[in-house]
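Tokens in:
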């Protein structure tokens, strides 16, 4: 992937607060200058609104453009030169000669001067700002393009203009006994006339805004609230409001902050290194919500790279790539939901999931607009949860969100982070749980993101063979590095705590667990025991799950894991036969059931008897893990066809097959997941470009009843499912299931019983032949005097032939299937029937 061109940044659906006045105004670069990377601030070519000008005694040509700039926006300080949060206001200009006399400061060492100018200094605070010296206080600032800088300090009756040392440096020594509280009056020019002075606080007059405990935890890789320590955080520090910028870049020779507040020239804002942790920090007064920024990193070889913040909590709208300073103002209203979320284990509760790609569910809607439609739709259909395909920011929409560049930022395509919070809040208030897909397996190679972030492999493994993901052209995380593991573990916690999500579905777990995943012989190196398992990834997943479950009661983690790894959903203290502990997930996608059952139903009925075992094999391992039965987006794209289109036969038979299959799926042990569009038998494959074919449900469409019938069935499946504990209360134990007849291959029939905790049963019978079978005998428990049909997928209201068992069925004293009594019932063609005792 490559950097993208700027575009409109805003898709917010609600007004945003006015940006605070920036503290670092500089004049606009020369015409034609361009900022590095996509994501310029305001539209290129627009002339900044300037404060009132005063005629200057002299003029100077416009300063040269920064080396890497593109069409910058005018900073808010030039648009609105209001005073920052300092307790001072712009002062009237004094006549020449009326200021306090300034002595020359000791010149900077040439090496320090060069390192500051090149962005390669580790301690700019040691040279810039105010420092006691013999007989006074030395002031020094680096303000490229400034015409003059004046110090205004307590104890000075008049202003003290600093000496111009060239290259943007201004310095001087004032006869003060101690370092005072002070501000700087900075004067610029725009090539024709001088601008008024702007009063700002000096970023180099502040102590570090990151504490020792934070640094200690970061160094240990144990900071569970990492997002509160790294990134851009609005705060009040030493009585002044601004933004603290922090970034982990241990290989960098220096780091500077570039943004729309300094025309993307970071020369004036070098950050300081905070020791061996590799963290760089700078508190910048006056910078607030909505400011755009990146980190200008000096690599070990002296070259520069302009990078988005790995911890950014908001980003520009793609294809623009800048990070955005943000803070939340959302007031949550889901207290009742959170208070009761952990009342019942997910394994012993209804769990029916509607999988949604938000950007295409209703194309063009914002998070807030979705909040007015999605909760009502999901609630009406009876699903207990939604699963949102990756919400984290990603540059390429065609990746569906699975190639993440902003792990801490909800995608800005549909609004702000608070807008996403509003959507989650609305779902919770409707009684719907929220799961999000989470992608810690890999990340793309975009040169403004994580790849070789500070000039060397940092988030990826140092071994190119280990770093390169062979399937997706991406990079794999280095799970053995404590800081990287901390970045990901804290990220899992972040989504649960900051956005109140109820679960994480972890993508591509198998690719993390195996060193030889999609690699040929010679392309991978065995672990220290000679095996193919990745012990670093195992340790990471165990830590992630343990941390999330400890900190976030009621949250569930779900693994998309496609192999026979032992103990995916076992506790981390469990040790399997391979010597590895359990991974600690709550649930696991049953990929084997999905592939086997879809293969069976795609066959013509006459051939299904030869594949009967594909439908029964899942019960051989059904209790080896805690399973979800997924019909996900992956099964209805890229030539795999939509669910109804996988079915053989004519249009009636295709719909009947889908209805029978869904009835079998909802009755089978395990939780359910269905991707959007399949609930109304959409015939076309899903495409992120246009989403579901909602027009199929338009009453003016001739075949609308066919599609509405399938959707009505899904609603009924969820309704009966939720009201029948036998279908969910004992999903994870063998006592919850018993075959009645699993060997009726010649009839294409599958009959089994489900039991709740009290032993109350539900009889499920699926018949995958296109004929009616009358007086079909099935053995049932003898203690019940009559059974009644509670669901029949062949009902006319679902689009079926209405072959029903309308009256209660009484068992007969005829032995069948190992039981002393049996029922005789009618099996509709291509249908599933559920019965329970009267």
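Residues out:
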């Amino acid at each position: 992937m490559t950097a993208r061109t700027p575009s409109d940044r805003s898709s917010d659906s609600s007004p945003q607060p006015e940006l605070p006045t920036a503290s670092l105004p500089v004049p606009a670069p020369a015409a034609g200058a361009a900022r590095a990377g996509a994501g310029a601030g305001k539209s290129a070519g627009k002339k900044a609104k300037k404060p009132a000008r005063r005629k200057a005694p002299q003029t100077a040509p416009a300063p040269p453009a920064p080396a890497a700039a593109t069409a910058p926006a005018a900073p808010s300080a030039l648009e609105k030169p209001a005073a920052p949060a300092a307790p001072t206001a712009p002062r009237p200009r004094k006549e020449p000669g009326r200021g306090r006399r300034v002595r020359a400061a000791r010149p900077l060492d040439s090496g320090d001067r060069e390192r500051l100018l090149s962005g390669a200094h580790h301690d700019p605070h040691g040279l810039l700002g105010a420092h006691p010296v013999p007989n006074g206080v030395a002031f020094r600032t680096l303000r490229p393009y400034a015409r003059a800088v004046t110090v205004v300090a307590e104890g000075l009756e008049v202003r003290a203009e600093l000496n111009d040392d060239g290259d943007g440096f201004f310095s001087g020594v004032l006869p003060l006994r101690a370092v005072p509280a002070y501000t700087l009056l900075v004067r610029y020019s725009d090539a024709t006339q001088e601008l008024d002075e702007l009063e700002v606080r000096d970023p180099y007059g502040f102590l570090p805004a990151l504490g020792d405990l934070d640094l200690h935890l970061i160094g240990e890789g144990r900071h569970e609230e990492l997002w509160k320590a790294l990134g851009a955080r609005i705060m009040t520090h030493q009585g002044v409001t601004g933004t603290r910028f922090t970034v982990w870049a241990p290989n960098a020779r220096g780091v500077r902050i570039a943004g729309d507040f300094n025309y993307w020239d970071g020369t004036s804002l070098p950050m300081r290194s905070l020791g061996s942790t590799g963290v760089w920090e700078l508190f910048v007064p006056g910078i607030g919500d909505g400011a755009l920024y990146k980190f200008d990193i000096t690599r070990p070889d002296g070259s520069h790279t302009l990078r988005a913040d790995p911890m950014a909590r908001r980003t520009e709208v793609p294809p623009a790539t800048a990070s955005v300073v943000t803070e939340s103002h959302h007031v949550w209203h889901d207290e009742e939901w959170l208070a009761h979320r952990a009342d019942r284990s997910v394994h012993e509760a209804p769990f029916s999931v509607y999988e949604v790609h938000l950007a295409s569910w209703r194309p063009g809607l914002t998070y807030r607009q979705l909040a007015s439609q999605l909760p009502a739709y999901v609630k009406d259909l009876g699903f207990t949860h939604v699963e949102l395909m990756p919400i984290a920011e990603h540059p390429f929409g065609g990746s569906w969100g699975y190639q993440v560049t902003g792990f801490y930022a909800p995608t800005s395509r549909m609004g702000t982070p608070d807008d996403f919070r509003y959507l989650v809040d609305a779902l919770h208030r409707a009684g719907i749980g929220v799961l999000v897909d989470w992608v810690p397996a890999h990340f793309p190679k975009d040169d403004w993101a994580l790849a070789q972030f500070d000039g060397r492999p940092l988030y990826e493994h140092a071994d190119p063979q280990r770093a390169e993901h062979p399937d997706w052209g991406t990079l794999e995380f280095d799970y053995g590095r404590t800081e990287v593991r901390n970045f990901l573990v804290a990220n899992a916690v972040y989504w649960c705590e900051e956005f109140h999500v109820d679960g994480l579905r972890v993508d591509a777990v198998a690719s993390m667990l195996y060193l030889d995943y999609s690699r040929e012989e010679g392309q991978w190196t065995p672990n220290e025991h000679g095996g193919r398992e990745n012990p670093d990834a195992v340790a990471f997943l165990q830590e992630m799950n343990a941390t999330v479950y400890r900190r976030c009661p009621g949250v569930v983690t779900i693994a998309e894991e496609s192999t026979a790894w032992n103990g995916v959903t076992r506790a981390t203290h469990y040790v399997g036969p391979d010597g590895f502990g359990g991974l600690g997930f709550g649930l696991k996608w049953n990929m084997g059931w999905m592939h086997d059952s879809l293969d069976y139903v795609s066959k013509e009925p006459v051939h299904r008897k030869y594949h009967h075992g594909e439908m029964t094999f899942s019960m051989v391992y059904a209790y080896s893990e805690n399973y979800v039965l997924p019909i996900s987006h992956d099964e209805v794209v890229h030539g795999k066809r939509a669910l109804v289109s996988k079915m053989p036969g004519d249009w009636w038979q295709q719909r009947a097959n889908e209805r029978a299959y869904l009835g079998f799926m909802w009755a089978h042990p395990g939780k359910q997941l269905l991707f959007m569009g399949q609930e109304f038998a959409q015939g076309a494959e899903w495409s992120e470009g246009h989403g579901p074919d909602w027009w199929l449900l338009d009453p003016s469409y001739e075949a609308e009843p066919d599609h509405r019938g399938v959707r009505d069935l899904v609603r009924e499946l969820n309704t009966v499912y939720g009201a029948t504990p036998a279908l969910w209360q004992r999903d994870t134990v063998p006592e919850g299931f018993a075959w009645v007849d699993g060997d009726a291959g010649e009839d294409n029939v599958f009959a089994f019983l489900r039991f709740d905790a009290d032993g109350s049963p539900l009889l499920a019978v699926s018949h995958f032949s296109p004929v009616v079978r009358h007086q079909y005998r099935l053995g049932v428990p003898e203690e019940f005097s009559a059974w009644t049909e509670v669901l029949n997928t062949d009902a006319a209201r679902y689009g079926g032939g209405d072959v029903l068992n309308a009256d209660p069925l009484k068992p007969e004293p005829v032995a069948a299937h190992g039981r002393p009594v049996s029922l005789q019932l009618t099996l509709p063609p291509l249908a599933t029937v559920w019965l329970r005792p009267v």
